[in-house]
Amino acid sequence: MSTLAHDRDTAVARSKPAEPQGTLRRKPVQQRSAERVARMLDACAQLLDEVGYTKLTTTLIAQRAEVAIGSVYQFFGDKRAVVRALGMRNLDLFFSRIEERTADTPTDRWWELVDIVIDEYICMHRSQPGFCTLHFGDIVDIHLLDDSRSNNDVLTDRLITLMDQRFHLPVTERTRLSITVAVETGDVLVKLAFRHDPQGDDRILTEAKTLIRDYVAKAVSAG
Question: What one-character DSSP code corresponds to residue 149?
């Protein structure tokens, strides 16, 4: 197998949204159970914004979701497991939005993906309960989504896979490095914008988009 093919296969395998071990004690089978779990995650998101992770408890989650405390422990071992599941849901929602918006984007206009990714990250901050507090889990643990990779590395791998599958951009070490740098830089700058303004300082967000778009374009062009 060629090095390029190996890199592509590795990126695809690593970026699949596999459920971290220990997140759910058991998966909900019936629709009623799935809806109950969704209510718990919604409650967790709201409470993270209101009281933060330190003061969050499974009792508060149960009360807000209007379920018995036993229902929480039926599916989750502790509050960390609930927050971990919420972080994964955020990640899947983030990529479903990106994939929907890029569905009709011509493959030779891959750079539009950069703006879309940043726009959706900003939108999640503005509209998704709990996201400004949790993001993809760093408030709890930088390895919340995957014990062997940082949360941003999980995000990076899924972005690289999307670039490969949707826009047919080669997976190289240079590509991986540039996307890693772009993800880390974008994360810092977007958080900075929301520290300056609860709705995101548009001046900083505009600068962030320009900086990251130009950097990624140069890096990808360089191969």
Answer: B
